[in-house]
Amino acid sequence: MSIDFVISAWQAWAPGIEDMSDWLRWRRMDLVLAGADKPDVSFLPMMQRRRLSPLAKAAVAVAYPLIGNRDIPLLCCSVHGEALRTYSLLSDVAANDALSPTDFGLSVHNAIAGQLSILCGIQSPALALAGGNYPLQVGLIEAMGVLAEGEQELLLLFYEESLPEMYLGSARSPKYMCATALHLSNMCTNTSGLRASLVSGTKQVVSAFEEAEYQLPLIAALVDGAGRLPVGQGWDLIVHEK
Fold first, then answer.
1. Contact, 154 vs 5, CB < 8 A?
2. How far is CA 56 from CA 59, 61, 88, 226, in A?
């Protein structure tokens, strides 16, 4: 079985990696993820920037340029979502401190999807996915369903941040924050970009709770313009050679 589609454009951000030239250097092992750099969202008004957490800024930084002025469906996929903001709220509860209604509203799993919809003026459906063990599979299968229902294009977004220490007994943590945005379109309507396929796979995939850097193999295939990687139980993603 093969489900074909096009990755029309993509962007990714991680500390120390700002653009495609940086990702090419990373792929050649001339550059490593490092530091506590903050995503550049200076294109947003100050009041809008102030509401964004570091993770939300990373998501906006990669998604905003790909969305542009288009009103397209938005799929946001994350295993843990706003983990640091949620942990801060739980710490306030434990200390019997008053909770901030704003912080609570921006901590829920669909908060980043909602913020992006507002910032980009999206009126098309926006969905927040809980990635679970296999976030790449969850995001890509949902995206294929949206395209199969007749949408011509959509934006698929993955993002994760380092977890608070108390969670590390039950889940591995990404060492660095990372966000990846994919502009996907139907093969029938777009032939520019990277051709890709979801195909039957047999290799066992390690859970994202054990291998938290799941975005990096995807980014490597995108940089190379080719590659095959398992994304879940019974599914592989193939990025075809240019």
1. no
2. 5, 8, 16, 29
